[in-house]
Amino acid sequence: MRSPSELNALVAKVGAALVADEKMIVTAESCTGGLIAECLTRVSGSRSWFDRAYITYSYESKREMLGVRETTIQKKGAVSKECVEEMVIGALQQSHAKVSVACSGIAGPTGGTPDKPVGTVWIAWAVQGHDEVLARRYQFDGDRDAVRQACVEASLEGVLDLLAAR
Fold first, then answer.
1. Which residues are registered as beta bridge partners of 145?
2. Distance between CA atoms of 63 and 40, rounded to whole angstroms?
3. DSSP conformation class of 155
4. For 77-100, how does the pLDDT look when each residue is reduced to its tens digit (9 = 90+)?
5. Are 39 and 152 in contact (CB under 8 A)?
6. How far apart are CA 140 and CA 149, in angstroms?
7. What is the reported pTM?
8. Spatial distance between the Cα atoms of 26 and 109, rounded to a whole number of angstroms
9. Contact 83, 70 (CB under 8 A)
């Protein structure tokens, strides 16, 4: 886990990369409850590259705010590749941003299953105008706070990787 100053440095890199690409970012968060957006907006000047955040903790909010299909939640679950892919696309469609990150997971200490134990998190990234949505499953260790923090860091690192690849 990064120290607060290391996390701020990561956020500054994300902001600089977004400014260089003349893009804004939107977040769609479940298990982090808005921590990604909080970290992004902690940096002065983030208004120029941060558009908005969707905190979609409930199934209903995922459907209503981001257009996640009921069948996706029923068949695959909220903690799935398919769900975060729909979240990340929905966030782009409902915002003015060109870059999106979405996450959904099981931070614990309850809620885990044999197939999806505590610490399971799916993160997806997308850039408007590009057909490919990147999604990755993570298995983070630690308590609830550690899982949420690890998700934030992986989400931001993924944004940097996505922008560097474009």
1. none
2. 25
3. H
4. 999 999 999 999 999 999 999 999
5. yes
6. 10
7. 0.97
8. 28
9. no
